[in-house]
Amino acid sequence: AIFPYFLVPGMIKWTALLWIILWISQNARGQGLCPNSVRQQVDFNIIYQNLTYYQAEKPIQNIAINTEDKQIYIGSQNIIEGIDSHLQKIWEVKTGPIGSPDCQTCKLADVEIDPSDPVDTDNEVLLIDPTAYLFPYLYVCGSTQHGICYIIDYSQPLEKPQCLYKQWQNTQFICPDCVASPLGTRMIIVEQGATSYFFVANTVNDKVTEKYPRRSISVLRPLSTEDGFELVMSGFTVLPNLRQSYKIDYIYSFATEDFVYFLSLQREDASKSNSPFRTHLGRLPVGIHEVWMYREVVLECRYVPKRRRRETASNLAKQLGLDVGEKVLYGVFAPVSETGRIGKESMLCVFSLKQANQAIEEGVKTVISRALKPFTEQYRNTQTCMNQNATLSKPMIRERYHNMFKSS
């Protein structure tokens, strides 16, 4: 089983640069320019002097970077902080604990509070509006108060945050303004025309879906009145009989011109708690917000040792079947045991988004051509079950030089 630490989209030119550096390094050793040395363990006890830094009081859970104003926004438990280019705090907004007189967001919405819920607010979402030149907004969604969101105007951060919650349109059974899950949320904002769309992926269980429900995958649009959301796509959620036993961890999301992608980690077999883990790449079209357009493909990162001759960057790209300028996905993977324990070794894999999309389309054609009956799905629509085109399992496999990327 393979566990992905993180995945980041990029361009093949950066891949070429990386391998050029490695190629130069290897050739330099061969020519005797650089002496061979025994690999040493990283010394984490070294103290660096005179480095600029900012020390948060609690572990940082989210970061957003404002390149225009040269500011950094960090989200930790119970607080959002604005940091300038010199790493000095310039403002803060307290988001918890619930019931604390210091909390600046707790009393903005008339939300029913479950006494059994935790009072500390974990930062689940921290995103800058893509139309920042019109709306200098920072969207913040926490683990408390049923995952509702707030707007912080970072051009006037001392003003009261705006609550995205319209009381009359939310109930215990239907809650479009309940966005984030305390079990984990990945969200990305995509601008289309003059509208910002929020693509949301949540890890859920029975408790998260029972009252003020949140969905596994959904698409939202903030209302022009800036007091709530409209469900553009009602979304879909893990089947009730699997919500406690089959956990889907969403670990990353990103967007291209055509699609929004979600990276998730889940068991290979939903009926077996000890089955291997797999990394899924799911996608939704940017312009078609329909449940039946959701697709998935499995990503696999394997190492097959064999002798390779030294390659230039252009030859390496050709060997990988990549074109210059092609979008790729970088992922660092590590083996994980049946019990969920992560191994110490890791390796870097590069996936072509073009090839991933081709694999998805080929899988759809295969399913249609075989005229298969609907198979067991992990998801369901609020009205109808998803058809058999929704989940595909053709792996994208790439081999890499794992010895260059071992973790210590």
UniProtKB/TrEMBL annotation:
SUPFAM superfamilies attached to this UniProt entry: Sema domain
Secretion signal, residue range per the UniProt entry: 1-30
GO cellular component: plasma membrane; semaphorin receptor complex
GO MF terms, alphabetically ordered: semaphorin receptor activity
Keyword Membrane appears in the UniProt entry: no
Key words of the record: Glycoprotein, Signal
Key word Ligase present: no
Residues covered by the Sema domain: 39-408
InterPro entries reported in the protein's UniProt record: Plexin, Semap_dom, Semap_dom_sf, WD40/YVTN_repeat-like_dom_sf
One GO process term, biological-process aspect: nervous system development
PANTHER family reported in the protein's UniProt record: HEPATOCYTE GROWTH FACTOR RECEPTOR (PTHR22625:SF61), PLEXIN (PTHR22625)
Full protein name: Sema domain-containing protein
Provenance organism: Periophthalmus magnuspinnatus
